[in-house]
Amino acid sequence: MADAPRHLFGSGHTACAGCGQAIAARLVIDTAGVSTIVANSTGCLEVFSSKYPETAWGVPWIHSLFENSSAVASGIEAALKYLGTKDKINVICQAGDGGTADIGLQALSGMWERGHDVLSICYDNEAYENTGVQRSGLTPYGANTSTTPLGMRSTGNPRPKKPMIDIALAHGIPYVATSSAVYPQDIQRKVKKALSIKGPKYLQIHVPCPLGWRHESIKTLEVGRLAVDTGLYPLVEYELGKVTNVRKLTQIKPVEEYLKAQGRFKHLLSNPEEVKRVQDIANNNIEKFGLKVVISEKL
Amino acid sequence: MRELLEGSRAVAEAVRLCKPGVISAYPITPQTHIVEDLAQMAANGELNAECVNVESEHSAASVVLGASAAGVRSFTATSSQGLLLMAEVVFCIAGMRFPVVMTCANRAISAPLNIWNDHQDAITVRDSGWIQVHAENVQEALDLHIQAFRIAESPKIMLPVIVNMDGFILTHGLEIVDMPSQEKVDSFLPAYKPLYSLDVNNPLSFGLVADPDYYTETRFAIKETHKDVLDLIPLVKEEFAKIFGRGSGGLVEEYKTKDAEKVIVAMGSVCGTIKDVIDEMREKGKKAGLLRIITYRPFPINAIYRALRNVSRVAVVEKAVSLGSYGPLLAEVRSVFSSKKKAPVVSGFVMGLGGRDITRDSIKEVFKRLTAKEISEEYIDLKPELLEEKI
């Protein structure tokens, strides 16, 4: 089809049906455009997009290891600076939540601290989904994963998500934001914004995983929206360390709606204390970012 | 120009003359002087390279991987624990066929912590696919770096090179060296033109998943290229000699082996001491010789066979161990003669671990112990009293 839009992340990859990461990855690269080089960490996205002799990538793309995409991107950026072409070419490094917040955190911190002109994307599906749904540092409280299984002495993951946004901000980098696979225009706007800024940028995108979160493939958008609408995954944007944009919510939904939509959280519903703990996390976010739309009484 | 230089400085000057575009390294003794010198050259504007000061050796190796993938000549340097931390990336760089050049200031491996010289670090990544060469002295270390880029970037090869130089002994030793001119280096080493790179005008994917249908051939291809490396290195040595007027490099050096009855096989700076002992023995009419292995990977099996087939006794002297088996170099030298009709008795001696001095007496002891009886792994200069200590 000659007039079909050309995607830089093509069809034919082997992602699961309903994969939020595949949706987000295509939005990111289509927005960044052809003049972009991507360094990818090992993980779902890498595996399902680059099985020899095929590739889903329409831009120069490189994968080598799990924890080093930000260091590889640093090397690419340095090479482009040497060649004098950096100003014309975007460099993106991308990884899952494990590759970003756990095993890749040191290299990422190094890249941010050194000030490389690179956009780092974290596709946050909240576990090591590629290896069979093990807990990562970005797995949310209470999630039933294969390494935080339920049992006599366990109600799932005992820890909240690692505060990656705060960690990124602590590096003093010029742009930090969250987004979600279910809000395409939000991703597009943030990728554009990030790439217009020189220096290190961090964008963490919530990407539902039907396999790991245990919801039907057709529910990806619904589940992703509930994460935002409950306040559990606020969509925020920081420039030069200050909040410049927050996605406000007209109707904040109780966390039960999000929890009951996914197999990984179902066990929490029978325990009001556990549900309250999750609600407290959402409430903190709602308060911290002023997520609730306040309609003035005078109007 | 002949000048008195520290080994690290001489290597840094050689690297500068090779005009790398990206340099990335992490501090580790005894490698640090090399990258400090390069950083100073960049600061002075004498070196037009991006110097990336990373937070670990893992990232240093990853930075040069990325830079090389982007089509730019790239250099790193490390030692010991640094090389081990890099190991994962080291395998990737070879597997992805990027012509990176690395200096390894050879040093012992922890535990216990030891910053002094042996060859355990280089031996540990011997199976990674990298070409590995060992320098005997500072001049050769300098020359091997210039040759390394040439070999690595040869379109038929496209494999990375480690230039090994003994930590402290060569990195911190002062030697009068002949520093080549930029013109000569330029005529020997053309600008790097990558066959493939991360190019927005020709978008390719690098580092794909290779399932059982494809993986084996990636390894076979490197094995085959190593044959080409063994053919190329003597030619590079010849061409280098023509331009620079000295015969650095090559696969092996045969020192007084032609009529020798007893020959030591060794690598690196210890060969200087061994040559002195051989000269002394020759004066007394004893037919001793040295086979110095310069190219350790790919292992020059044919060159070793040709050099040693008429020798009756061979002593492999090595500064590394393979705990649980025989010395790694011993096992490989022996393997050269498996199923061969003409074979010397090959014995193995371990010495110089963790920087323990190898003296002339240590080498004389090797020749003394080298009888017709095969010895598999004897330690020279061992201190038995330390083993008896009660803790």
How would you characterize the overall build of this protein?
With 299 residues, chain A is an alpha/beta fold. Chain A is built from eleven helices and ten strands. Chain A has a single domain, classed as Rossmann fold (3-Layer(aba) Sandwich). In chain A, helix 1 packs across helix 7 and helix 3 runs parallel beside helix 5. Chain B has 391 residues and is α/β, with parallel strands linked by helices. Chain B has two domains: 243 residues, 3-Layer(aba) Sandwich (Rossmann fold); 137 residues, Rossmann fold, CATH 3.40.50. Chain B is 40% helix and 19% strand. Chain B has a seven-stranded mixed sheet with strand order 3-2-4-5-7-6-13, sandwiched between helices. In chain B, helix 1 crosses helix 2. The radius of gyration of chain B is 21 Å and the shape is globular. Chains A and B meet through strand 1, strand 2, helix 3 and helix 5 of A and strand 3, helix 3, helix 4 and strand 9 of B.
